[in-house]
Design a protein that fits this description.
The protein has 54 residues and is an all-alpha fold. The chain is built from two helices and no strands. The longest helix has 21 residues.
C-alpha cells in the first residue's frame, strides 16, 4: 500500500475517532438525547381519572 493511501486512512481514522469521542462527552450524550427526544422536558403523557373509565 502506498504511503499516500496509508496517510489517507490514518486521516480518516483520526477524524472518525474525534467524532466518536465527541459523542461520548456529557454534552454529546445530552445532545443525542435531545435529538432523539428520549427524555422530553414536557411529558406528553396524559393522566386519566380512573373513575372516567368505570
Amino acid at each position: 500500500m502506498s504511503s499516500r493511501r496509508i496517510g489517507a486512512m490514518l486521516e480518516w481514522a483520526e477524524g472518525r475517532l474525534k467524532h466518536l469521542e465527541g459523542e461520548l462527552t456529557a454534552d454529546g450524550i445530552a445532545e443525542a438525547l435531545r435529538d432523539r427526544k428520549l427524555f422530553p422536558e414536557v411529558e406528553d403523557l396524559v393522566v386519566h381519572n380512573i373513575e372516567e373509565n368505570a
